[in-house]
Amino acid sequence: MTDQIPRGARDDILSPLPPSQQSLDRSEKTTNDEEQIPPATRPVDVPPDGGYGWVCCACTFTINAHTWGLNSSYGVFLAHYLSTSTFPGATPLDFAFVGGLSISQALFVSPLATILTRIYGTRTTLLVGVFLETLSLIGASFATRIWHLFLSQGVCFGWGMGFLFVGSVGIVPQWFSARRSFANGISAAGSGLGGLVYSLATNAMIERIGLAWAFRILGIVAFVVNLVCALLVRDRNKLVGSSQRGFDYRLFRRGEFLLLLGFGFLSMLGYIVLLFSLPNYADSVGLTAQQGSVVGAILNLGQMLGRPPIGYYSDTLGRINMAVVMTLLSGLFSLFIWTFATGYGVLIFFALIGGTVAGTFWAVAAPVTTEVVGLVELPSALSIVWIVLVLPTTFSEAMALEMVKGAGGKYLGAQLFTGFTYVGAAALLWLVRAWKIGQMEEEAAAAAIEKGPERHESTMTVPLDDAVDAPRVRVHVGKSSLVKRLFWIGKV
């Protein structure tokens, strides 16, 4: 006996689009010229999956090393500020906000950088970033008050890093398809290498030539390297058809995108504490400033070593799968290793193994967001992601230092906070994975209808027209329960 389907439901099943796309607002489809174009008539861009893309990958790697990597050395600056009276009257909370601002402002400026890219192109956006980052480091070398540091090493550096980051983060995915996550992992590893080099170099320069000249040398090096990369990199925005909207509010209607934002929010709460606190934590357990800088450098070494394999196996095992597992490991390592790391050797071990997974979000942000919203909407979606991350990146380290202060200098509260935020982030992304499995099932069902009659364990009969005796096709509905999706094993 066959199942009977109402005509409206039958129309949805026979539609070549997945149900998630069928439910789009009809008024938007009629008012948006781009959406009026039938999908079949749009030119399909095929990424070269290499070629000049590897040059762009190398440039993005180097830019990350001289933005996020250079900023990773702030843990060394923070340890120096807390142990000296370079800026009279400044509190540990003030210094925590300087580091938080350097990241949050990079994310806050993302809509402006996205709009600038749309109007003037990627290269102009990158050049603006080169100028602002250089200005910030040179300006910080003349700082004598804490508010000078807020404006230079905090706000101005963040804006420069933001223009460079937003201008380059979406380029690598445009050049690759099958090897997209691997290439993105390589480019993201640049921040690890930069953090490794500059954590050691910054501490050495501060001890030998002083804080001011350390800032000036970093500014000169960053200017030269980032300028060369900005002139070499190329985007494929026109070929891909990227929307480049600064803020596309329609994405907030999608539950899976909101879960993705929650994943990023919680990931950053844990990541910033781990990134900036390790050198000072080393000092709190009786290690020297030199040993603290080595611990920070090893954390960045772990990020450099961990991100390419994460990207490589994301392409073979599933991008969301790898993101969930690596984020969960970040939380477990913090809870079960960092909380017991009171000796130099154990702390080095934690920094290395924890670093391989700590920055998972940055390695998977573009590929996983592409899985959720598609390549066309990627720039707009990432722009929103960066804005949402402003709050956790601004206040995370300040919250951690307040926990330490309230516990009499003990880091246990901050360590538990870091671990559980990572675990929560993994749980939210696990729900995104369940949604993606449902989307894959819907697309498979639609494809089965287009191919014609197929037999499957779970099938229903669909009349081809309104006639009573019309021929029917048997198709697999492909809808499973949420519980089955959560525990389904396969590439996602």
Automatic annotation (TrEMBL):
Residues in Major facilitator superfamily (MFS) profile domain copies: 256-492
InterPro entries associated with the record: MFS, MFS_dom, MFS_trans_sf, Proton-linked_MCT
One Gene Ontology cellular component annotation held by this UniProt entry: membrane
Membrane topology term: Multi-pass membrane protein
Broad class of the protein's primary localization: membrane
Domain of life assignment: Eukaryota
Residue stretches spanning the membrane: 95-117, 124-143, 149-170, 182-201, 213-233, 257-278, 284-302, 323-341, 347-365, 372-391, 411-432
Pfam families registered for this protein in UniProt: MFS_1 (PF07690)
Coiled coil: none
Ranges for region Disordered: 1-45
Keywords: Membrane, Transmembrane, Transmembrane helix
Example of a GO MF term: transmembrane transporter activity
Compartment annotation: Membrane
UniProt family annotation: Belongs to the major facilitator superfamily. Monocarboxylate porter (TC 2.A.1.13) family.
Official protein name in the record: Major facilitator superfamily (MFS) profile domain-containing protein
Organism of origin: Coniosporium apollinis (strain CBS 100218) (Rock-inhabiting black yeast)
